[in-house]
Amino acid sequence: MGRRTVTVPEAADHSETSPGVMSIADTAPAESTSRTTQQTNMSPASTNINSYFPFFFHLFSLDDIIRTISNAVITDDKTFNITVSRNNMMERGLAQWQRQKKSSPSYPIKVTFLGEAGLDTGALRKEFFTGKVAGFEERFFESGPHGGRPKYSLSDLDKGHFRTVGEIISASLAQGGPPPNYLMLWCYRFLCTGSIDFEHMEKNDVGDEEYLDLLSRVETATDTSIPDLTNEILNCGYTGQITIGRREEITRAIVLHANLRLLPMLLQIRDGLKLYGLSDLMAKYLDVCQPLFVPGLEMTADADFVLSVCQAEYSETGTNQEKVEVMVMNHLQDFLQELEQESVMERDALPSLSPKTFLQWITGQGHLPVLKEERKHFNVSIKFNHHCEKDFGDHRICYPCVAACSNTITLPVKHMTS
């Protein structure tokens, strides 16, 4: 199918108003116009999804969704270049994304890490997306047992950070990065529809510790103690009598207040998700897209997956070299499995060591490929260096060498025999 050419206007703002959310947008705090024009410079791909993809109403699987937005990436020799430091990828990455004036995220993302000579053939981009999407969960969302919801931050809202979050999530899904499958269901459904399902909103949808604590105190309050909560209850928009007999109504008001104040943040994220027409796909195929945003489908690489994709290039069968290489692979298997079985305390002490980060080190990504076809052909080549002294001269400590562009790691084996 031929790709439709998209004209991207110069120096335009990324933001776009959706007719379906006008009534909600009107109630959100207005953003500074001068601030908005500084944030981003290009419009995302057209949101007229029906004209974009003539097969739109024939999408039935997650693979179809990913392929559709991947095909919406404009490939005409232009790139969206991001140069960022590894030391502060979260904040610097946001700033560089918003400051980019010469291109648009509608084009392929090309990443350069400061101080490194690596050429981005896809691995650096995946590493950038892996770090950003994982970092968003901590920086912009409050996690709970039922998923995450946006943090209430008017500062980030004013700077357009939530819109940038949405754009980076879209780019991650379209260009080989991980999905943000850590959102609460009600947040995801709002991103799809632009409206709130008040009828089914309940206490489990609240994640803010302040309001969870207030709900707990209201639930255990007595006739004599509930007046002490008057100010906090009134601040949640409740206007009725504050008595034990109205406990259910009070609880309802707290739940609605805790969640409705997050709508401006969700609206900005939804604006960002218009990139590549993703928000329209989510609206049409809400259930199909859900595993990309809501917990349920395991996307993180574990030890078994890493080992299953490792393809070792052994020496001739029966030789001493082959025996040593098999021994190295056994040690690697033990190492990855032990990392997975470590206690919480041990993981907190060494958070950078896990099967996920091991895979990310070699390939740039720590997640399972979303596309079934891509997962089928995904592999890591393992080579063995029996003569490292010839390559590196005299040395006492051997290190593995990684070529992320080809998903290859070369393991030294001299230490196994000396």
From TrEMBL:
Keywords: Transferase, Ubl conjugation pathway. Residues 30-44 have a biased composition (Polar residues). InterPro entries: HECT_dom, Hect_E3_ubiquitin_ligase. SUPFAM superfamilies: Hect, E3 ligase catalytic domain (SSF56204). One of its GO terms (molecular function) is ubiquitin-protein transferase activity. Gene3D superfamilies: Hect, E3 ligase catalytic domains (3.90.1750.10). This is HECT domain-containing protein. It comes from Collichthys lucidus. The lineage of its organism: Eukaryota, Metazoa, Chordata, Craniata, Vertebrata.
